[in-house]
Amino acid sequence: MENKKILEYRVGSHLYGTNVETSDEDYSGIVLPTEEQVFGFEVLEEIDCSIHSKDSSGKNTFEARDIKFFELRKFLKLAMECNPNVIEQVFVNDENVLFESEEGKLIRQNKHLFPYKGLSKKFLGYAYSQRHKMEVKPQNYKELQETLKILFDYVGTDNLESLKNKEWINNSKTYLVEIKDYLEENKAPVIFNDSYIKIGDLNIQKNIQIKQAIFQIDRRIKQAGSRTELYLKHGFDSKFGMHVIRLMFEGLELLETGNLIFPLKDRQTLLDIRNGKWSLRQVIDYSEHLDNEVQKAVDKSPLLSKPNYERIQDLCMIILKKEFNNK
What we know:
Blueprint: E1 5-11, H1 13-16, E2 25-31, H2 35-39, E3 46-48, E4 65-71, H3 72-80, H4 84-87, E5 97-100, H5 102-109, H6 119-134, H7 138-155, H8 160-164, H9 167-171, H10 180-185, E6 190-192, E7 196-199, E8 202-205, H11 210-223, H12 228-234, H13 238-257, H14 267-274, H15 280-300, H16 309-325
Parallel strand pairs: 2-4
Antiparallel strand pairs: 1-2, 1-5, 3-4, 6-7, 7-8
Helix pairs in contact: 3-16, 6-13, 7-11, 13-14, 13-15
């Protein structure tokens, strides 16, 4: 990979200018494909070099690093489609570039090719997925956690990995509704309705096997992240709230200027949200205001109405021909 790397840079909060003392450092970049991947059967889209290290609460420790490299064609395709996590990377400022070859510089010099009006849907869609996670109520989160613990006690384990290795539960056809008495005896915060079972903000079928119920509850908890201290301190996950507004800021700036400048000019507003100076209601109201601003910006935007497919493909071919004609 080192021989094929053409760009490496810092992303995430250190790029946005919203990093705090405990912020992880995240990295990304682009690698060229090998001959086998261009002309043969081998396929490469991404290389994950992340260092995974979590504490008992599920939060990343200081040793954790998110490090992801995209193969050139995969990167250009995602950037052309205005994937929010990828298109911002062509606008990385010089201070956050750790390595850049001639090919990498060519991509950054052609950053204006990537934004088009369709980015409004991509950025708003991603922002509202973050808002959904932000709006998980602390009480719902608590009820999900309590129910999961009671179910783990019932099956005799305390984590999903152990659960996968328990032969009896893997073969069990016991449905959740069949252990209603056990749940009630242990004061599980579960409501049994006619057609479904309500746990926090999760509705699941009555006739679901215990193992599948555990997986569904765990998945819903993970959608809310591992930042329980933010729920307790601010009443909502303020970090998700920050990302909702950040994505809308970025989408609006791209529509109006075709450019992104880092660190973000509104980073203090984002930090105020992250640090709990805004209420949940204020974040929701402001996101709705920015949604309207983004919709209005689409009509006025100087950007193309569709992806700049031909010119981005030309850029891709220039880079690949340069690489393989030199061999």
